[in-house]
Write a structure and sequence with these properties.
two-stranded antiparallel sheet; DUF4124; two-stranded antiparallel ribbon; about 160 residues; mainly alpha; DUF4124 domain-containing protein; rod-shaped; single chain
Length: about 160
């Protein structure tokens, strides 16, 4: 073996052995510290994992006062999807309301047009049960005009 390769292997082994001592301790303020040297005069423990590789769910689950420190991506995704569903439901409701208003406007316009046609016509007729044309007399025409006005009041309320 080459002397340089041997020196490199020994250097790596020595560095790994000396750097493997990572200590963990909590000071009097409750702050957790990680260090290669143990704290003077305080008990310390060697963690199984390096400080950067600590258990992420446990770290995220307990923040200040036991409240969750942050939301997981699954929680954020679920909240996002719920907001999408809520927006789509609100949009559908808005469309239904607009369609109902348009139907009411159309029905109102048709009722007014029928009344106008009835009032402007010289002779008003209808078909009887046998399919024969029957002309309305003045009394029947007045009653029909009154029904058309009631229809307008019902269909055009609030317009």
């Amino acid at each position: 073996m080459h002397p340089q390769a041997l020196f490199l292997v020994l250097f790596v082994v020595a560095t790994a052995a000396s750097g493997s001592g990572v200590y963990k301790w909590v000071d009097e303020k409750g702050v957790t510290h990680f260090s290669e040297l143990p704290p003077p005069g305080q008990p310390a423990q060697k963690p199984q994992k390096a400080p950067g590789a600590q258990d992420q769910p446990a770290a995220a689950a307990a923040g200040d006062g036991g409240q969750p420190a942050g939301k997981t991506w699954q929680q954020k995704e679920a909240e996002f999807r719920q907001r999408q569903i809520d927006r789509e439901a609100a949009a559908r409701k808005q469309e239904e309301q607009e369609a109902a208003v348009k139907r009411q406007q159309r029905d109102c316009m048709l009722a007014r047009k029928r009344l106008e046609n009835l009032q402007d016509a010289n002779a008003v007729s209808r078909y009887d049960d046998q399919g024969e044309r029957v002309y309305l007399n003045d009394k029947e025409r007045t009653a029909l005009i009154q029904r058309r006005r009631q229809e307008i009041e019902a269909r055009c309320a609030g317009m």
